[in-house]
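ok here's the first one, seq then struct tokens
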Amino acid sequence: MGDIFDTHSHYNDSAFDSDREELLGSLFAGGLCAAVNQGTDVPSSEWGIEYSKKYKGMYAAVGLHPECLSENSFEDLKVIKKLAGFPKVVAIGEIGLDYYYDIPRELQKDIFIRQLELADELSLPVNIHDRDAHGDTLEILRKYKPKGILHCFSGSTEMALEVVKLGMYIGFGGVITFKNARKTVEAARAVPLENIVLETDCPYLSPVPNRGKRNDSSNIIYTAQTIAEIKGLSTEEILKATKSNAERVYNVSI
């Protein structure tokens, strides 16, 4: 079994409709030991649970993504709470704030906070989305102090270290391999290895040399290689350490 632990994936996405079973079978037969499929709404959360039954290495996070919010979201939260009780649900996610899109910010913050409270009630970690909302995200994290991961990190080094002080983990993916990823590289250099996990956000954000193509968990090797260069360690050391970190944050043993 390999040491690739993909802490953030979306294998329910239609980009995988043509070859999903073949791809997942080959990934789990290769170097992928675990992948956590992130829910963005009720159907995708349910999908993750169903697929966690099909593959030993597949786990599910359930939650409401800020881009998917509507007037029905408060009712959907009741469903998410029920889903969170299923076996192999390891987190509440993907939740957070996204100010890039024109979605009412007060609604976003309300649903985000309610899901943080749910995670605390159920003793589950969270997987957090933060796009163009660094200030409000950090303010809420400081107040509620959840356990979990700030995924696809795009903030400053100072913010990364503040998140680490709260006991959280920073998720790095393909973006760190991009030529314009100076801020992300600086953050990865500053964050202790024991607070780093790896992710794809697949099918999005493929790393160099596959940028622009459909992403999958096999591409984590390129992210690991880049972080190894930044940290002055071997790729194998990065994979082993980040696997251990992922097991710890999600409370699983692979």
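and now the second one, same deal
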Amino acid sequence: MAKFRIVHYMNQFFAGIGGEDKADLPPEVHEGVMGPGVGLQAALGDEYEIAATVICGDNYFGENLDQATDAVIEMVKQYTPDVFVAGPAFNAGRYGVACGTICKAVEERLGIPVITGMYVENPGADMFRKDVIIVETKNSAASMRQTLPTLSALIKKMANKEEILGPKEEGYLERGIRVNYFAEKRGSERAVEMLVKKLKGEPYQTDLVMPVFDRVDPAPPIKDIKKAKLAVVTSGGIVPQGNPDHIESSNATRWGKYDITGMERLSAEQFTTIHGGYDRQFAMANPNVVVPLDALRELEKAGEFGELVNYFCTTTGTGTATASAAKFGTEIGKMLVEDHVDGVLLVST
């Protein structure tokens, strides 16, 4: 009896090729099993075969999205798999975005069932949970052994074209998909039961989980702008040449802090932009159009505000998950409070 064929995608780290030093690795394909594929193959059993492993560096994929996706699609196509699996990526942001991107592309272009795995706060989870099935994992690869049974069970169902039940039954992230079903009790009975449990302080499960909207109270106005210490924070991707902190051009999982002590303006020889969501030519020629250090120095000298803090903070906003953005804001805000900053200029692009 022929075995079900699986193609497995992973990044350079999980493939055992290297870390950040190998993050620029272009896509390549290897016959058989590599890295976490060994454990996955064992969990799947003899009726399933990981025919090939496709590898791509996180930086290469993020910076060459279209080319990398096209190349991986061609590699997957060679093996005509029954199921395509990526990751799991756990809480690795760049890896998660790559897994989600390539899963969606394989499903749409090749019509092959796809699956991946991520921690709920991975940026890729927010971006792709409506498009592909994402097995819910913990935040690190230390939970690989707990993840593989759930992942392998769903792969088997996909290969055998069996019905996949809801996220709670199968262990994947909510996708926001509604389906009709016949409940044992009518809606009015369930509603009364939920109300009674809520009044008693007992746990209950609503039929329709509502979204939670974050509300932030506005900060009080600056009392005296003439004495205020100000800072610049941008999502416009302005970084030193070479992008030393490897901030992604989209779907950012990190931010940077860069010194501007003694600088009257940002020089194009020293700074550039890595943002993937706008025409960068003007910002590359003159970074001050995004981080207006030149104008701020003039205002500072004119006494329009007290002083400018000696650094600016930067990331990219394109496609960045809300959870990541909130994390950046909390980290940057804590630092600014410790540096006695009175106000922040959040410059737009």
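notes on #2: DSSP finds eleven helices and twelve strands in the chain. The mean pLDDT is 91.
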